[in-house]
Amino acid sequence: MEEKIKVAFFDAKEYDIKSFTEANDDDLYNYKIKYFDTKLSLDTVELAHGCKVVCVFVNDMINKEVIDALVEQGVELIALRCAGYNNVDVEYAYGKIHVVRVPAYSPYAVAEHAMALLLTSVRRIHKAYIRTKDFNFSLNGLTGFDLHGKTVGVVGTGKIGRIFIDICKGFGMNVIAYDKFPIPDSGINYVSLEGIWENSDVISFHCPLTDETKHVVNQGSIDMMKKGVVLINTSRGALIDSEALLEGIKNRKIGAACLDVYEEESDVFFHDFSGHIVDDDVLARLISMPNVILTSHQAFLTKEALSNIASTTLKNIKDYFNETSFENELCYKCGKIENCKQEHKKKCF
Ligand code: NAI
Q: Hey, where are the domains in the chain?
């Protein structure tokens, strides 16, 4: 019998194991998946021994050293089970190890979560929930504001950003947007980044984390924003300089922050720290604010998205070994990382 291809699956959670087991229980794939709850790092890379594939998520840091160690172990493929790839040194990986991702699994999941956070924040649902659980039916301090007629600035008008725009239009909001690569004839009202900062009552981020977008929310941009602005970040934590955000909240410039991601999330998110002392003072202070809502990188977490992640990841692995079109490969060489020309046996090298 042909030996099964082994996959070392890092940062595995209960819901990952469930969705991947379901998707893998199929004549199509049937890989031998070894699940590890630890993240992939230089300290844990040996767990991949004997595996041709590692499957990783947003907080597995795949830098040069980890890539070298993976190659040394005989690993051929890094299969990201997420869309963002800022945690992988794709440039260094070129020519050494192939990298593939799941470009889209449910943009609705993330866009709907962004709106859920916004509504929770502006209608104080998080406060009301706790009060009524304790039979406190007072409304004092729960005054919100209508979204209808307010201006929302959307940064990044890709798959998620466009769905979020449609949702906001449904609420009767006035939508302005910024994208480095605006979509022609889309009917989207594009403005400059300064235009976003100066005119928005609510700003939502749906662009990738790059050198250019890192700390796009900083002291300078916050100074330009309207007093009382609500910031939503379901994209990547480092888009926002957390200390500047905290300062903006303390000095009452920022009206509320809805965060699904946090700059330094990799050591805390996805783990239960209740009963422990969290060392991150900025995070602790942000969480203590009544106008900050934080979910721990949860926006993607719907049944539909998990099922799509599992089936696309397994198909990506199959495409790699079958030498069929390897469409989700991330390739540094072709100019646009997400658009490999697949010139070598339908792969980038
Ligand atoms: P996408 O690739 O469809 O859209 C990204 C958009 O950002 C594109 O229109 C692109 O032109 C634009 N962009 C690129 N550089 C920019 C810049 N410097 N300034 C402004 N815009 C820029 O990606 P998609 O699927 O809409 O995802 C957006 C982001 O959401 C991902 O990069 C990822 O970080 C995040 N995400 C978060 C999840 C969560 O669970 N919280 C789940 C999935 C994605």
A: 6-105+302-322, 107-294
How far is Cα 156 from Cα 180, in angstroms, rounded to an integer? 8
Angle at 160 between CA 24 and CA 214, to 5 degrees: 105
**Local structure of 257: helix, strand or coil:** strand
Question: Does 341 have pLDDT greater than 80?
Answer: no
Cα-Cα end-to-end distance for the chain: 30
Distance 112 CA to ligand 1 centre (A): 15
Do the two domains 6-105+302-322 and 107-294 of this chain adopt the same fold?
A: yes
Indicate the SS3 state at residue 38: coil
The pick from 179, 197, 236 for probing ligand 1's pocket by mutation, whose C-beta has the most ligand atoms within 8 angstroms, reads 179
Position 298, amino acid: Q
**Separation of alpha carbons 20 and 201, rounded Å:** 41
From the CB of 208, is ligand 1 less than 6 Å away? yes
- Spatial strand order of the sheet with 174-178 comes to 174-178, 151-155, 202-205, 229-233, 254-259, 292-294
297 is catalytic: yes
What is the enclosing helix (H) or strand (E) of 154?
strand 151-155
At 286, list the tokens: 């942000």
pTM (predicted TM-score): 0.91
CATH code for the domain defined by 6-105+302-322: 3.40.50.720
Pairwise CA distance, residues 273 & 276, whole Å: 5
Helix or strand or coil: residue 231?
strand
CATH of domain 107-294: 3.40.50.720
- In eight-state DSSP terms, residue 314 is H
Amino acid at 188: I
Q: Does residue 235 have its Cβ closer than 6 Å to ligand 1? A: yes
CB 251 within 8 A of CB 222: no
**128-183 pLDDT, tens per residue?**
999 999 999 999 999 999 999 999 999 999 999 999 999 999 999 999 999 999 99
Q: Dump pLDDT digits (tens) for 86-124.
A: 999 999 999 999 999 999 999 999 999 999 999 999 999
